[in-house]
Amino acid sequence: MSTDVYENPLITRYSSKEMAQNFSDDKKFKLWRKLWIALAESEKELGLNITDEQIADLKKYAEDINYDVARQFEKEVRHDVMSHVKAYGEQAKSAAGIIHLGATSCFVGDNAELIVINDALDIIISKLVNVINNLKNFALKYKDLPTLGFTHFQPAQLTTVGKRATLWLEDLLMDYDALKNLKENIKLRGVKGTTGTQASFMELFNNDENKVKELEKLVLKKLGYKKAFSVTGQTYPRKFDYNVLSVLSGVAQSGYRFANDIRLLQSMKEIEEPFEKSQIGSSAMAYKRNPMRSERLCSLARFVMSAPVNTAFTAATQWFERTLDDSANKRIVIAQSFLAVDGILKLYMNISENLVVYEKVIDKHVRAELPFMATENIIMEGVKKGGNRQELHEKIRQLSMKAAENVKINGGENNLIDLIKSEQMFSGVKDQIDNVLDPKKYTGRAASQVVEFIENDVDPILMQHNNELGLKSEISV
Fold this sequence. Notes:
The chain is mainly alpha-helical. It contains 19 helices and four strands. The strands form two sheets. A two-stranded antiparallel ribbon has the order 1-2. β1 (146-151) and β2 form a beta hairpin. The radius of gyration is 31 Å and the shape is elongated. The relative contact order is 0.11.
C-alpha cells in the first residue's frame, strides 16, 4: 500500500477483491480483445477477407496485453481505444490491419462496460442472498420472542424480534427482484457503428442488410449474450446506467434501514452487532461499545444513495447521438457505486450472522410498558365480572396518569398494575391480572407470519441459490 498518494478506500478498506478485480483495467482490456476477436471471426464467417492465420494471431495475444506499449501510444494519440488497437497490432502483426474493422470505440468500450456490469450484478446477488439467509435464520430463531414495537419511535403494541427481522428481509426481497429484473433484461450495445446506423458495416458487406444483422447476432452469440439494444446512438442508452444505480441505491437503502435499527437497538442494549475481544469503541471513553460496523454501513449507503442523480444528469444530456462528457464520470460513478454496495453487503453479512440478543433486557423493557398495553384486556375482564365499561375505563385512565407520573417525575417503576390491584373496582379480576400480563398474548400472529413469510417468499429464492450460500464475511478494519 502506498502512503504518499491518495488511495481509494473502497479498494483498500471496504470492498472485496472479487469486485475490485471485476472493475480492473486488466478485465476491461481483455474484454476489448475478446470483442475484437468475436468481431473478426464473425466478419470472416460472413465472407470478409480475413484469414485463419489472422484469427489465430489475435487469439494468441488475447490475454497477453502489452501495457507499456499501449501507454506509450496513448501519450501520442490521446485515444485509449486506438492506443490499444495499435498495441494489439504490434503483437498480432498479421492481423494489425483488420483489428476493429468497421467498429467505433463504443463497440469495445460500451459492450465491455455492459459485460462488467452484468458480472458485478452476479457478485451483488450472491452476497445479497447470503444476507437473506442469515436474516432468515435469525427470524426463525427469535420468532416467538416478544419485544416492544415502536411507531414514531414511541412504544407501541408488541411484536417479536423475529417478526421485526422480516421487515428487513422484505426490503431485501424487493432488491432481489429488482436485481434479477436487471439481469434478465441485460442487453449489449451490439454492432452498431459510429452513430448507431451500421453504415460502416453496410459498406463492408456491400449493402447486404441481412449480413449486417447476422453479424450482430454472431458477435452476441460468441460473447454469450442473446440481446442487444435494438437502436442506439454511438453509445448504449445512458438511462440504463441510471436504472442500474437506482437498483444499487435500493440495496443501500435496505442496508441503511437495517443498520440504523441496530444502532438504535444497541443504544437500548437489546441487540448488538458483533464486538471483538480487543476492539476499542472509543479512544477516550474506554467503556464504550460503538456500533462501528453499522455506522460504516450507513456511511457507505449514503454515498450510494446519492449516486443515481449523477447518472440522471448524464442520461438527460446526451446531445443527440452522444457527447463525451460522460466518459470520465462513468469511470468513477458506476465502479465506485458497485464497490460501495459490495462493501455494504460485506458488512451486512457480517453483522446479520453475528447479532447478539439480550433477551432479559428486551423482557425488562416489555414489562415496563406492558401494563399500559394490558389495560384494555383488564377492562374486558372487569366487564365480564359485571363491571361498567365506561367506569372501568375512566378509573384506568386516572390510574395510568398516576403511574406515568411515578415513572417520569419520580423516576420510579411503572406501578400501574399495583394501583389497579389495590382498587376495589377491580377486586373481581385481581387474581386474573397476572395472567393478562403474559407478553405472548399481545404479539398476535407475529410468529406465524414469520414462518409463512419464510416458507412462501424467502425459501423459494434461497433454493435457487443453494450452491452460493455459506459465504463468510471478514471485516478487515
